[in-house]
Amino acid sequence: MKGRSWMIRFSLSGSVFVMALLLADQPAIAQDTPAGAPQATDSRGLEEIVVTARRKEESSLKVPVAVTAIGSATIERTNASDLTRIAQISPQIQVVNSSTAVASFVSIRGIGAASNDQFIEQSVLMDIDGMQLGRGRVTGLAMFDLQQVEVMKGPQSLFFGKNSPQGVISIKSRGPGDTLNGYIRAGYEFNARERYIEGAIGGPLTETIGLRIALRADKTAGWLKNVAPEGPQVNPVDPFFPNIPGRYKDRRPGSRNVAGRLTATWTPSSSFDTTLKVLVADSHNDGDAGSRELFCAPGVTKLTDYGVADPTSDCKLDGRVSVGGLNPAIASEMTGGKQTEAFGAGRNTLITLVSNYSPTDNLTLTSTTGYYHYKYRGIDNANLTSRPVVSGRNNASNTSVTQELRLSSNFGGPLNFVVGAFYEYGKRLQDSIAILRSVGPDPTTGLHYTLANISRDRTDAYSGFGLVKWAFAEQFELSAGARYTKEVKDSERVSPYLHAAFAGRFSPAGTVLTGKYKDDDLSPEVSLSWKPEERQLVYATYKHGYHSGGFAAPTTLSVINNMGPIGSPGTLQYGPEKTKGGEIGYKASLLDRSLRIELAAFRYNVSGLQITSFDGRNFAYSINNAGKARTQGLEASAEWRATQELTLRGAFGYVDAKYVRYVGAPCTKAQSAVTPVGCVQDLSGHQLPRAPKYSATGGADYDIEVGNDMKLGFNVDFKYASSSNQQETLDPNAFQKAYWLLNAGVRLYQDDSGWSLALQGRNLTNEHVSTYTLDKSAGGIGEYQAIPLRTREIRLEAGYKF
């Protein structure tokens, strides 16, 4: 009853507020131009937002979904070249991108699945040019030449399928255009010594064929200063390899990236069109843990490796790291003589083909084919100090093929429908080698590293979906539908090698674990919309979301690991995550379209929340299903074009995301020291990790004409997030205090085409923020590793567009 009364109060207060807004706008409604008369336009009017939340282009004011749409102008103005920067201008959204092949994280409204495990899928789906991707690795893809990014909040299972229980981030790149067009821009960021250049050209080749080519390249020295000593050093932690080379670079995380996209369209008739997009992106960085920083709990003054202090570490998040180079002999052994320095290299290939055929004026058949391949290899100093004692080599690959067929109607009557079918094939490989502590050569093989593991997965997923929409009483629309999903995963975990000194702790050489995971799900959805007038929408929805289970792929296998039933001791199997709940919302474009507002109140219950935690003793990640979690809250946003020159915007979010029941949670490192075997804790009632209760964004743009077809523009943006714990175990020392981020810029530009020059600043107050926290490898109690937010950026950029 307590939960129901909360929702009733929410609904009543929301209804009262919406009605007040409706009444406040009545004079404007009464003065609307009569039907058929010419429509007056206000130069201050905001552009209409068009979204694809229902897999077709519609005005946001017609869609009963909470959507944040970020257009190309905003992306360019804020230099949002990756998803972490998109999250900085959107409340209740968090994106953590690590340079590793795994540790990336996306959450909406306080819930997300951390992909520290190579094979776990996100609970926030990525949709890139029509292809649905559930792996966190795609958060690191360069974002360039984009038309729009949409953040859809809440379950989106009906139109986007599994692995979207908390929402979808949809990324749409630009098409060729109707006329010849393009741009080129280049910039330099001073603190990280980052250089980049990108450009595109597109247009029609013939009356039926269009083409666009876009390219981007960048190179960064790094924004973390590496203070580890240079030159040969002595490593007192490793008596077998006492000589180490010292640091190999004075900055981290260095990177260089090259990406290109080809877009081709063919429209032979008014009833058929097809679009092909091919993206290839190569990346190279300083290693698996290149973007991480170490810090300590209060009272701990030095970072350690197996109890030996690192003399150059400072134990603080301050933009300084102390990371030494790898032992060349160990690195060469793990890479087969190919590499002796830390590195990470990956390639992403994404191909989509979207075709639309209209056999009649009111039916459209859409085919969406997608292919994605990712390959990564890397090695790094995993203990992140000047003395490398824990190192790992990770080779990974992922291949996905998807096919969707969708038939939608556009009848003139009150009833319309959407039906479709979807298939996904996935294949994943992880090949890992690690040295956890040097103990001399193995007596049989002569190798020095600790162990090797290979994980393989194959996924086949099938689904069918349908939706019926009924427009009645002129102002109302009722839609109801469901998606059925069936999924099969075949998994294999192999231990080809184990050093004799670690026998009894990890799975012996020759261990082969196999398992098959099967599951199915029915996710219904119903929504009721009311349009009191053309520029307003009130809606209520009830939805289910589904996040598939499977088998964990840890970098180390313990002797007790198995592929047994979910919940059994040592099992690698974890169950699905299911979300049920609803929300009410209000959208409006008021004051002659110069003011746009959105409000939403939501409440969702999550069963089997998938939690990834780090086992510092075994240097491995594990996946557990929390018993039950809940997220509920409010969000509001507004954008107002106050004058032709000035635009103001703001958004606020409140989210209460907590464990309702989680009695078998993993322990903190300090708790495990007291209870080494079988330690668990009860986290019921606690706030979820990385789920700040309050968040807000805001900003302003001011653009004035300065003559000769030139404009001078100023922009300022801020983001606020309240405190939250950054670690799955809710270690009390892993709290990130509340923080503000301030971004600002000034630019001189020609509006439609021509030259531009911009000076942009991000995180101008130089806040040091942990976005994700783990226990330090080989460290003691109170020692942690963090994925920090990038510190202050000062960027100068010049461009030309036509």
Question: What can you tell me about this protein's structure?
Answer:
- The structure is a single chain.
- This protein is mainly β and 802 residues long.
- It has two domains: 1-29; 46-792, Maltoporin, Chain A, CATH 2.40.170.
- The chain has a 22-stranded antiparallel barrel. The chain has a five-stranded mixed sheet with strand order 3-8-9-6-7. Strands 16-13-22 form a three-stranded mixed sheet, with no helix packed on it.
- Mean pLDDT is 90; it is low at 1-42.
Mean pLDDT: 90
Assess the beta-strand content as a share of residues. over 45%
Gross geometry: globular
Reported by name, the CATH topology of the largest domain is Maltoporin, Chain A
Number of helices: 7
Please describe the biggest sheet, giving its number of strands, its sense, and whether it closes into a barrel. Answer: 22 strands, antiparallel, barrel
Number of strands: 47
Q: Please name the CATH architecture of the largest domain.
A: Beta Barrel
CATH superfamily of the largest domain: TonB-dependent receptor, beta-barrel domain
**Helical percent range?**
under 10%
Q: Which structural class best describes the helix and strand composition?
A: mainly beta
**What is the distance, rounded to the nearest whole angstrom, between the alpha carbons of the first and last residues?**
61 Å
Q: What is the number of independent domains?
A: 2
Q: Please compute the radius of gyration using only Cα atoms.
A: 27 Å
Task: Give the CATH level 1 class of the largest domain.
Answer: Mainly Beta
